[in-house]
Amino acid sequence: MTEKFWQPAGMEFDAYWIMDGPESVGNEFYGAGFNATLRDLGRFGLMMLNQGEANGIQVLSEDWVEASTVSDPGYERISEDASIGYQYQWWTFPDREAYSAIGIYNQFVYIDPQSQTVIVKLSHTPDAQGWEDDTLAFFEKISQLTP
Q1: pLDDT of res. 71
Q2: CA distance 18 to 6
Q3: CATH pick for 2-144 out of 3.30.1330.10, 3.30.450.70, 3.40.710.10, 3.30.450.20
Q4: Which end of the chain is more exposed for a tag (fewer CB within 10 A), N or C?
Q5: Where are the chain's structural domains?
Q6: pTM of the shown model
Q7: What would the pLDDT profile of 68-90 be if each residue is shown by its tens digit?
C-alpha cells in the first residue's frame, strides 16, 4: 500500500494498520484499524474528489472511483429504514453525489463532488455508533454553503 498508493498520492506521514497479533506474525483485520493523520486523510479525500488523481498522478483509476462511490442499480441500503447505503468501503447516499468513509467512534472523510467539498472529522464518542445521521446532516449543510 505504501509503494502503490500512499507515496504516489503524496501523503506526508506514514499510515498504519492495527494488527491482530505481534508484529512478526500479526495480520491486518478488515473493517477497522486504519490510522492516518487528519491532513493525509484530507489529501485522500481530495484525491477521491479528483477522480483518483493526486499531484498530477492517476493513483486510482477513474473507473474504480466512480464504481465505488456512485449509487447504482445494485445499491443496497444498510437496513430497510436507513438513509444511507454501503458500497466498496464507502457510505453512499441515494439522493445526492456525496459519499463518506465512516470510521468507528466518529471518524469521517466526507466528499461532495457537486460542491467540491472535502470534510475530515476526527473525534471520539462513548458509543461506537449512533452519531451518523446528525453528523452527516451537518456535513451536507456545510457543503451547501456558498463562499
Answers
A1: 65
A2: 17
A3: 3.40.710.10
A4: C
A5: 2-144
A6: 0.84
A7: 887 655 556 556 676 777 777 88
